[in-house]
């Protein structure tokens, strides 16, 4: 895991875009974004059980696994969105970037590699991309009644109750 402020410069989304300004695990936690390195699946199972997760799937994001739709999928994951439910992603192989919005509405880029796990709180704006290796194998964990549909950012969404709850919690 490595987290830093996104440089905001033009260029492919899969490039590092590292501004050189690092962001610590504690600063991520202040945004409600929790990071764990879990080498054993047992640790993931325990965390999932504690937080009431009952469903999961695994996805391989790569040209080999997705064929012609790979480039479209990667663009789709990179649309800024939120979920009304917590989101857990566990990386089983390869690597990728989760970008989350800071309190100042800047992008914080989080590089996740094998055995890294990230919890995103409901209501946080974020996006995902593969890196230059074009390969990630991830486990997506869902609660019992998944509300993980991506809701793309819009002014309507700023008044969404889950969004407002997140903004309030992260200001406490
Ligand atoms: C998301 O919510 O953006 C995703 O699930 C991306 C694919 S999982 C690596
Ligand atoms: Ni998402």
TrEMBL record:
It comes from the Eukaryota. Fe(2+) binds at residues 81, 83, 87, 126. It is found in: Cytoplasm; Nucleus. Ni(2+) binds at residues 81, 83, 87, 126. Belongs to the short-chain dehydrogenases/reductases (SDR) family. Catalyzes 2 different reactions between oxygen and the acireductone 1,2-dihydroxy-3-keto-5-methylthiopentene (DHK-MTPene) depending upon the metal bound in the active site. Fe-containing acireductone dioxygenase (Fe-ARD) produces formate and 2-keto-4-methylthiobutyrate (KMTB), the alpha-ketoacid precursor of methionine in the methionine recycle pathway. Ni-containing acireductone dioxygenase (Ni-ARD) produces methylthiopropionate, carbon monoxide and formate, and does not lie on the methionine recycle pathway. This is Acireductone dioxygenase. The lineage of its organism: Eukaryota, Fungi, Dikarya, Ascomycota, Pezizomycotina. The chain holds residues 1 to 172 of 567 of the full protein.
